[in-house]
């Protein structure tokens, strides 16, 4: 399906092209912002934290910085990273697709924030779920354990098993990140809209925003597709999302930095980018405010707001919201400073990484973001 490119998006795309052309022909002074950013990124690459990265910083109507560093692949042969490489976003799917789609359904009058989950999805059959609301799911305070259902079943049978999930502790008393929360929110969108999650997101989010390289996987393997730790290039890395047999709400979205910039521009525009209104201002406000009280970490409707998040640039305000992805991605949006930060890496290539090294990779993305923000005057 083809979508008409909005005039503002044409200008936005042209600004990307102009910036790229200028970077290719203009010498870079040693003390320039670009040189300082390059030095900061190179430190992380030299430390071996990941082979390459794409960094994009923007503010309303303007890309401030967009560059690729290092290598997209190092085995079986080295391939340089390019700015238009396609990354599997892993859990960044939760906010770019699922929570945004839920907010659109609220605007359509089909769902509500704070509604009981049993009302949004009557098929749920777990014990002790009556007090649960969709806000518990979106803030990961449902009491659901982060169990991996693909070890028990696959396809629709796996998704049906999830409908019987029961809280393991009192809802609202503990933060525990669980993919099943967002998978259930995605199913609520499907039930309310009558469309598959990928179809709904394409029609209501990606198409109107001109996000032409954004889609749920699997995607055809090709030179632009990044390795993510999945068994094969173009596959979804998360096993549950890969084995579900159809798009689900926790992971599996593929995109580029430039496409994510369009999404971030929309979020800085309180749900609007040019003539494209994705979310109402009211829903946008509800989705980007902190819903949890201390000692629980700050979370909005799907988004992280914890100032102590390991991948969060510290130069952002305490109103900034963001999300990370297990494949090595971070996006942060600051409504106070009116800036967004996109750091995309291939941290699971050439092999999957966990433990302390994984934490160091997350922290490296924060350092890259901070170095860029500092160099650009933030």
Q: Explain this structure to me?
A:
The protein has 378 residues and is of the alpha+beta class. It has one domain: 3-Layer(aba) Sandwich (Beta-lactamase). The protein has twelve helices and eleven strands. The strands form three sheets. It has a six-stranded antiparallel beta sheet, sandwiched between helices. It has a three-stranded antiparallel beta sheet with strand order 4-6-5. Helix 2 runs antiparallel to helix 12, helix 3 runs parallel beside helix 7 and helix 3 packs across helix 8. The N terminus is likely disordered.
How are the secondary structure elements laid out?
Layout: H1 7-25, H2 33-46, E1 52-59, E2 62-73, E3 79-80, E4 87-88, H3 93-107, H4 117-120, H5 134-138, H6 155-162, H7 179-193, H8 197-209, E5 215-216, H9 239-243, E6 253-255, H10 257-268, E7 272-273, E8 276-277, H11 281-287, E9 321-325, E10 329-334, E11 339-345, H12 355-375
Antiparallel strand pairs: 1-2, 1-11, 2-3, 4-6, 5-6, 7-8, 9-10, 10-11
Helix pairs in contact: 2-12, 3-7, 3-8
């Amino acid at each position: 399906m083809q979508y008409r490119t909005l005039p503002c998006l044409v200008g936005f795309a042209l600004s990307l092209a102009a910036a790229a052309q200028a970077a290719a022909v203009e010498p870079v002074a040693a003390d320039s912002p670009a040189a300082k950013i390059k030095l900061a990124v190179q430190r992380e690459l030299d430390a071996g934290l990941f082979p390459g990265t794409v960094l994009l910083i923007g503010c309303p109507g303007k890309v401030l910085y967009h560059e690729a560093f290092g290598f997209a692949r190092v085995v079986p042969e080295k391939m340089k990273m390019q700015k238009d490489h396609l990354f599997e976003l892993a859990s960044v799917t939760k906010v770019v697709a699922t929570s945004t789609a839920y907010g659109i359904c609220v605007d359509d009058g089909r769902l509500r924030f704070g509604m009981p989950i049993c009302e949004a999805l009557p098929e749920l059959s777990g014990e002790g779920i009556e007090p649960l609301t969709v806000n518990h799911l979106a803030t990961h305070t449902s009491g659901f354990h982060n169990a991996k259902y693909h070890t028990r079943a696959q396809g629709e049978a796996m998704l049906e098993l999830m409908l019987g999930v029961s809280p393991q502790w009192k809802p609202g008393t503990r933060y525990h990140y669980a993919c099943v929360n967002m998978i259930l929110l995605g199913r609520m969108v499907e039930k309310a809209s009558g469309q598959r999650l990928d179809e709904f997101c394409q029609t209501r989010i990606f198409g109107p925003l001109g996000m032409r390289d954004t889609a749920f996987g699997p995607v055809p393997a090709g030179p632009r597709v990044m390795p993510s730790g999945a068994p094969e290039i173009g596959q979804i890395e998360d096993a549950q999302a890969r084995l579900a047999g159809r798009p689900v709400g926790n992971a599996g979205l593929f995109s580029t930095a430039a496409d994510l910039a369009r999404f971030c521009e929309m979020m800085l525009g309180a749900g609007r980018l040019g003539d494209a209104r994705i979310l109402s201002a009211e829903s946008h406000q509800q989705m980007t405010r902190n819903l949890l009280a201390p000692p629980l970490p700050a979370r909005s409707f799907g988004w992280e707001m914890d100032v102590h998040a390991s991948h969060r640039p510290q130069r952002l305000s305490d109103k900034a919201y963001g999300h990370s992805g297990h494949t090595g991605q971070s996006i942060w949006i600051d409504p106070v400073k009116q800036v967004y930060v996109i750091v995309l890496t291939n941290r699971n290539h050439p092999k999957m990484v966990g433990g302390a090294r994984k934490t160091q990779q997350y922290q490296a993305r924060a350092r890259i973001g901070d170095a860029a923000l500092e160099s650009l005057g933030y």
